[in-house]
Amino acid sequence: MKLGPALLKVHLWLVLGFLYVPIVVMAALGFNASPLYALPFEFDLVWYRALAGNAKLIDAGIHSVGIALVNTIIATALGTMAALAFARYTFRGRTVMQILLFPPIAIPWLVIGTAMLVFFYWIDVRRGLFAILLGHVALSLPYVIVVVGARLATFPRAVEEAAATLGATPWQTFRRVTAPILAPGVIGGALFAFAVSFDQFVISYFLAPPGVTTLPVEIYGAIRKGFTPEINAISTIIIVVSMGVLLLTARFYRFGGER
Amino acid sequence: MTVADRRNRGTILALTGPAYLWLTATIFLPLSAMLYCSFLDKSPLVPQPASLTLRHYAAFIEKPVYQQLMLWSLELGAIVTICCLLIGYPAALALAKVIKGRWREAMFLMVVLPFWSNALVRTFSWTMVLRPGGLADQAIHVVAPGAPALNLLYSYPAVVIGLVHSYLPYMILTCYISLQAIDDSVIEAARSLGARSWALFRRVVFPMSLPGVLAGSALIFVPAVGSFMEPRILGGTKGATLGMAVEEQFTVTANWPFGAALSFLMLGAVLLICLVLYPPARKRMEGL
Prior knowledge:
Strand content of chain A: under 5%
Strand content of chain B: under 5%
Oligomer: heterodimer
Helix content of chain B: over 70%
């Protein structure tokens, strides 16, 4: 009986190894001097210095961060509003609307990305950063609605009623009572939206015109030309940024569900 | 309708309208447009009026190449899903029922952390491990110095490994959620009634966690069937999928209607498989 749990624990550690070893290897080789990934390992920042002089990659990085920030603002605002409506009102069509949140999450991005390409061409929205932003917001919205909705589900409505009884105007109630209680959920949703956009490759790939790219699209192009440690360096930066955003999210939004 | 109801309706519309308008313009209308596009006889890029045709769907039936690609993609999706289940379920079990307290929280976070990091970057990192002279090669040579060089990169196993790495956290996450919901007292009760470990798992724990298993499997199977980036980077020419064919129709040959038809055939096949597998699975859950 004691053997089972011990084996399970070992298995879990092996799984964590499987998840992290490639990422660690990839990151380490970005600090290696050899352009052919040759060992022995020799520490050098040459590839990071090369990044600083790579105007194309820097442009792509600026696009990625810019789109992610604008996406976060729009998706968080619209998503929080919709989540509020779902939590506060029962109305006809509510269930259907909630089910409609699944297609953007469940349908392969390849299908969604190519569908956007076709539709945007027909309505004359040119491929480019604006089109990419339109797509990213659509993918982020369901996540924001779900995350903020989870917070609203545990919202103590009595506090709002108490504020109203004590003479607060609706606006005062919202600003002084509702908003502070809701804040962790909204921040959690915003961080999710940032991560979704910052890491999104497939949609951006189909909506990016030649010459204008985001980081993942630029990296995909570089990988297909051949491997260089410069890709390791920029990949390491991306991983650090997105994992940092996630650790922040974890502070505001418990994944485990227990509280 | 009372005045309050009408005011509510205005509020609801104002709150949900913007989000759903956005989703309509960027998800639902494009999907409809693509369905329409799959029936056109000319690519929208051609500046001539197009007429409706079933040609592209017929081409799928006439050309065995694409049926083969479809089969390969479905097979790849099934293999990846099964691997994720075999590896992920025990890990979720350890997380939910063996590890306790702060350690559980930390390890849970470790599992979901890569889940949101860039899939492309994670796929790229496997090329560093699998390429000739990479980590996998060197590890083998430490154990068996005379072994021939592993040529894993640009092979079918490489694609499977990369996809399992990408989607494993989904399975651990959904199984963990449903395993964690099982009350320990249920397990205690079964044990005090004389259930041995294996019977306990087979008759109590596993059936109760089935919703998580199914959710995880669907979440993995669907995108794995539609994958094109991982096979492209890790499989080279060895791991051809229908997803890669779709990508080519849109980026290289610019035959949008055919690419759209392939996309919808893929969606249809995946949906059909989920619909066929769902009823027996639900019966199993209801038969608890």
